[in-house]
Amino acid sequence: MTDKTLIVSAPGKVILHGEHAVVHGKVALAVSLNLRTYLQIGLCSNGRVQINLPNIDTCLSWESAALQFLLTTIDADVLNPKAASQEQVDKLRQFAGIPDGCVDTRSLAILCFLYLYGAISASSRYCLPSMEILVWSELPTGAGLGSSAAYSVCLAAALLTANESIACPVPEENGTVRWAEDELELINKWAFQGEKLIHGNPSGVDNAVGTWGGALKYHAGKIMPLNRIPTLRILLTNTKVPRSTKTLVAGVKDKLNKFPSIIGPILNSIDAISCECERTLAAIVAGDSTEESYAVLEELIDINQHHLNVIGVGHSSLDRLCQATALHSLHSKLTGAGGGGCGITLLRPDTSPSVVEASKRALNDMGYDCWETNIGGHGVSLHSPSSLQRDVSQLLTRLTDCQ
Amino acid sequence: MTDKTLIVSAPGKVILHGEHAVVHGKVALAVSLNLRTYLQIGLCSNGRVQINLPNIDTCLSWESAALQFLLTTIDADVLNPKAASQEQVDKLRQFAGIPDGCVDTRSLAILCFLYLYGAISASSRYCLPSMEILVWSELPTGAGLGSSAAYSVCLAAALLTANESIACPVPEENGTVRWAEDELELINKWAFQGEKLIHGNPSGVDNAVGTWGGALKYHAGKIMPLNRIPTLRILLTNTKVPRSTKTLVAGVKDKLNKFPSIIGPILNSIDAISCECERTLAAIVAGDSTEESYAVLEELIDINQHHLNVIGVGHSSLDRLCQATALHSLHSKLTGAGGGGCGITLLRPDTSPSVVEASKRALNDMGYDCWETNIGGHGVSLHSPSSLQRDVSQLLTRLTDCQ
Fold first, then answer.
1. What is the rounded distance in angstroms from the CA atom of residue A76 to the CA atom of residue B325?
2. Where is the GHMP kinase C-terminal domain (chains A, B) (predicted)?
């Protein structure tokens, strides 16, 4: 087992096109969102296991001895990830004092950690390692940005690396490295088990994006990575208007049942938008008439935003977002469930800092959270401390010192 | 020939659904707009023919003798309307001093009058009748509201009635009457010839709506009247933003060529909206769950407005119109060519006067013209002077006195 402190990170995800339509058998494009979750893992010899989740004000610590029950409860093979059984989940809940049916973020994060820690460690050891884990995320939780998947991916990558089930690639000074393809496969599979604990029946899209980054196509339950995807600058805005994904999905279904010949074609149009977007992203990578390609991306965003309003998942907060950015000639759409939640605004490579700042200011003035970031970037990564952005590095150091 | 003064009126038209999509073989619904054109015709014995068009500051008067050339130029059969030949048009232009290629409203209105007057009168007489005609319209011209068709319909109805080619139904005191079906057919056919002189290659939709009122379905060049249509209250708003129908139509075609699989389904969805609207109008007439039917009409308006934006014929002036009325829970869409021009806002039977007033005020404050009126009402009609709304009656009297 490695004795170094490791820092890993995984991106969030946004749906670029195809939200809701995907429920009705159409193509969706999911892309990595470079708001990342960082996990620092340090192996220690104090006989304790600690997990610190400052975003949700949670820090738990157990005697390793108290966790020994995991070895008998979880009979896992590290190379063949499998989901927690109901019986295992019940035992983990009982141990952590989480009542049945308790599905708050904190409870689910703890259950996810205990299962992945137990399954990945127990499968290759007779005794459980002592460690301190610190997870900090740039992603808001519950906003449809794949924060739970980023957490699961980081946990899987860190635990698998820590117990040497996968290699520990050495980042150069100031560097960031990634794992080999088969190791990413393993990380993704364990992360998916974590996601199942948290979400019950996840699509697997979020953990795949968290693991591989870039973009993927999701269609009829199948996940297909896109080979050629540029990194695109965006504004990611959280309107903070709460919504129920379930209610929104049901609303679209009702509308489709009410007006099949009106709404059906819209879903087909959204499908075609995803496909056109895929072609356009490939054209940008190939360097074909970039200016024109960006204009197409903008047009697709505008069209889809109209379609999403038509199928009933718009919201006045999102209309205001679109209007505010349109004043700066920027194009926005909701991403994910809609009905509030988050929106993305495409920035061109040459969009000036003053336009970006003015747009952010306008969105902040409306009470929204807004990040300038990018999509389509790398997936789960291992960082040398010096390779981290200074603010992230300082934050992790400060949080470590507080432990 | 009747020796009374006759007053006839014909409605304008709006496209309820299907504008632009109709160009691509989809269904459009056109309905009568109760902003009307009024024509007062008085036969006299002063040997003169006068036409007064105060909306366009035009009043022309000729000696009947000077118009005798029409008898030889136009060899028409009143029961078999036919279009003016190029040679006839040339002679009319020459007579009226309208240079070739001159297509301003005034020139076209005069040509239309001369042709209909000549053709309808000449076909049944050896000498031309002396008359004074006054036409006044509530319809703005060039706004896609069928003002030229309402003018042609009024001219045809008045001239045919004046020379007894069709009966002169006697309106009761305070009454309004209409012609028999075969007479309406004849009025419509002559009005269509007038429209051809003005527009070159009209669809025939506008004059059909002006003649029969109500609503009609237009599909693949065929005009089918709808049997069951309620009168709906609306606001008709003219943003007064000028636009080129030709450019807008070409833009939709370009967009369809650029993104066939994205835009094609939208046109199908618009087609389905027209059909659903037709069903819903019939349900309202049948008295089926009116509340629900109005909610459907509102939903169709919202969806179509999004679609019209998607196909590129929206405009910020129309967005503002929709937003302003949405603040009062009213639903609006553009009507006709888009890119500015006019919009319609549906009012429910129970929409309160205060909501209507507030909406009108908001729209006026934006610099738009706004009328509270209705759609689906009656077509060309003959009025007793006392049956006219007092303001129309006073206006016609005042304008007559000025002649």
1. 62
2. 294-358
DSSP at A340:
S
CATH class of A232-375: alpha beta
Phi, psi at B113, each rounded to 5°:
-60, -50
Chain A CB within 8 Å of residue B273 CB? yes
Rounded to 5 degrees, what are φ and ψ at B10? Answer: -140, 145
Let me know: does B60 contact B50? Beta carbons within 8 Å: yes
Catalytic residues of B: 148, 206
Domains of chain A: which residue ranges?
5-228+378-401, 232-375
- Which of A276, A306, A316, A320 would best serve as a mutation to test chain B binding (most B beta carbons within 10 A)? A306
* Residue B384: pLDDT band with limits 50, 70, 90: confident
If 0-12 CB within 10 Å is exposed, 13-18 middle and 19+ buried, where does residue B355 land?
middle
From A327, which residue of chain B is nearest by alpha-carbon distance?
B316
B228 shares contact with chain A (CB less than 8 Å): no
CB contact under 8 A, A265 and B261: no
A401 tagged catalytic: no
Q: A332-353 burial, b if ≥16 CB within 10 A, otherwise e?
A: bbbbbbbbbbbbbbbbbeebee
Give per-residue burial for A254-277: e unless 16+ CB within 10 Å, then b: ebbeebeebbbbbbbbbbbbbbbb
Tokens of B362: 């908001």
Q: Chain A residues with CB inside 8 Å of B261's CB?
A: 268-269, 272, 275-276
In this prediction the ipTM stands at 0.91
C-alpha B239/C-alpha B369 separation (Å) is 7
pTM above 0.90, yes or no: yes
Distance CA B185, CA B177 (A): 16
3-state DSSP assignment of residue B155: helix
Asked if the C-beta of B266 comes within 8 angstroms of chain A's C-beta atoms, the answer is: yes
Label residue B201 left, alpha or beta by phi (over 0 means left) and psi (-120 to 50 means alpha). beta
Write out chain A's pLDDT in tens, 403 residues. 455 789 999 999 999 999 999 999 999 999 999 999 999 999 988 999 999 999 999 999 999 889 988 888 888 889 999 999 999 999 999 999 999 888 899 999 999 999 999 999 876 666 788 999 999 999 998 899 999 999 999 999 999 999 899 998 887 767 889 999 999 999 999 999 999 999 988 999 999 999 999 999 999 999 999 988 999 999 999 999 998 999 999 999 999 999 999 999 999 999 999 999 999 999 999 998 899 999 999 999 999 999 999 999 999 999 999 999 999 999 999 999 999 999 999 999 999 999 999 999 999 999 999 999 999 999 999 998 888 888 888 888 888 876 5
Would you say A197 and A139 are in contact if contact means Cβ atoms under 8 Å apart?
no
CATH fold, domain B5-228+378-401, is Ribosomal Protein S5; domain 2 (3.30.230)
Residues in chain B within 8 Å Cβ distance of A266: 265-266, 269
Q: How much of chain A is helix, strand and coil, in % rounded to 5? A: 45, 20, 30
Q: What is the pLDDT of residues B14-73, one digit of tens each?
A: 999 999 999 999 999 999 999 999 999 999 889 999 999 999 999 999 998 899 889 888
Q: Do B273 and A262 touch (CB under 8 A)?
A: yes
How close, in Å, is residue B161 to chain A by CA atoms?
46
Instruction: Tell me how far apart the alpha carbons of residues A363 and A294 are, in angstroms, rounded to a whole number.
Output: 23
Neighbours of A99 (CB within 10 A): 8
- Interface membership of B326 toward A (CB under 8 Å): no
Residue A358, chain B, CB below 8 Å: the answer is: no
Q: Do A265 and B265 touch (CB under 8 A)?
A: yes
